[in-house]
Automatic annotation (TrEMBL), chains A, B:
CDD domains in the cross-refs: CAP_ED
Entry keyword set: DNA-binding, Kinase, Transcription, Transcription regulation, Transferase
Entry-linked PROSITE patterns: HTH_CRP_2 (PS51063)
Source lineage: Bacteria, Pseudomonadati, Pseudomonadota, Alphaproteobacteria, Acetobacterales
Name used for this protein in its record: cAMP-binding domain of CRP or a regulatory subunit of cAMP-dependent protein kinases
Keyword match Kinase: yes
Domain HTH crp-type positions: 146-220
Record-linked Pfam families: cNMP_binding, HTH_Crp_2
Organism for this UniProt entry: Muricoccus roseus
Amino acid sequence: MTSHLIRKLEQFTKLSSKDKHVLDQVSTEGLRQLGAREDIIREGERPQAVNLILSGWACRYKYLEDGRRQIIAFFLPGDLCDNHVFVLREMDHSIGTLTPVTIAQIPRQRIEEVSLHHSRITQALWWESLVNMAIQREWTVSLGQRDASERLAHLLCELFLRLRGVGLTDGDSCELPVKQAELADALGLSTVHVNRTLQELRAAKLIVLKGKMLTIPNLEALQDVAQFSPNYLHLDREGRHLDAND
Amino acid sequence: MTSHLIRKLEQFTKLSSKDKHVLDQVSTEGLRQLGAREDIIREGERPQAVNLILSGWACRYKYLEDGRRQIIAFFLPGDLCDNHVFVLREMDHSIGTLTPVTIAQIPRQRIEEVSLHHSRITQALWWESLVNMAIQREWTVSLGQRDASERLAHLLCELFLRLRGVGLTDGDSCELPVKQAELADALGLSTVHVNRTLQELRAAKLIVLKGKMLTIPNLEALQDVAQFSPNYLHLDREGRHLDAND
DNA sequence: TTGCTGCCTTAACATACGTTATTGTCCCGT
DNA sequence: ACGGGACAATAACGTATGTTAAGGCAGCAA
């Protein structure tokens, strides 16, 4: 079940079987199960461990005093919530589930141990951190410059590619287990306008969305309307990383 | 002249004189001077070094194909542009100056050397990375949920506090050496609307802005209109960090 | 079956913000 | 002292998106 994390990291670098074993190990300890719409950790609390999502979807979010909410990031299976957070004294935002979720809570000490002895994993975790930062930056670009349909299309492309990276797509389809209200909170739009925009993408045959199942019949076309360029996901593995002994 | 970086890091932890010496050292090598509105590094290029801003303002930005531009982050004196970028093969965005700038280019090897031998610096650099990520998240919140005046007020609060953290404020004033067009690109607004919104804040006596000089007569009041909470800057230094030998 | 309840859909209307355009002001070079 | 260029300030008008409200459909409990 770490397989998602391993699969993700192997987009960046080849891991030795020892590396994989360590990762498997880490993700069987400290298991925690949550239902849908529960908080994993809340703003103001002290971060104790790094949370690894084994299954289900979660999100980072923040409320303003008057109740407006922004979803700041989506967490998918294989995602780590904030490597090294424990440097900070308290959380400045909350993390909550969107669906039922299983996580592995990796204690600080365990992380330090691993990064001391497994430089390839350390390197790969750096890569995953940097990609997450790039995703956050791209959200800034979307919210600042893209209009509703571009923004929605962009998000769907991002999620699809991230899911494909951990083996959770099936051809041109994947699950999208979130409500329109949650999409709205992530996109900085109203639910009404998210609905309108979904209809628009449907009418243009760019997406098929029935229940929780999303199909993107022509990914290139969807990328085009979003001005989506996958470079920021840094999925190009280089030759220089292929020398692990397996 | 590293003093800005040192001063910033000391908001998080006390540094030994040895630590400070190392940081001073690092920031006198690889100096580079740039004029206003020049690029430090461009999207697509391979990152070679970590850039430390010694003086002047810069920004991270990204253009869409059709010419829209989003400023993703501001860099102030004492800021490091992307510790560990060199894990990635190419830049997914550009970094450019807003004013004349002096930077120190710190080669990869130097960073690794320092973080190997000076754990307190390593720790402090982690803190600075995490704060930068928090700032990026807060921009997501602003762009997604805050209206024009809240957004502008929030940005001004952020910049003022960051400048204060590196000793670049004078009472309730600081420099704001950016054009309204640049504020617009950062805030996801048009220049016309930025202008309107500045007038609004001026009329409400929340800011005084003459030339490149910003004064915030009542920081609390400005924070209130922005729903600004400084917790995300993580400026609360803890007792546990006070044990360095100086 | 019935009737909730949660979510999606659609419509009519309101508004914050964008666009285009003009004028004003300061600074700098000659 | 003059003219040009860059930037700031305003005005008139257009539009993307928000708000409020109502109806529809599926799933679930009794």
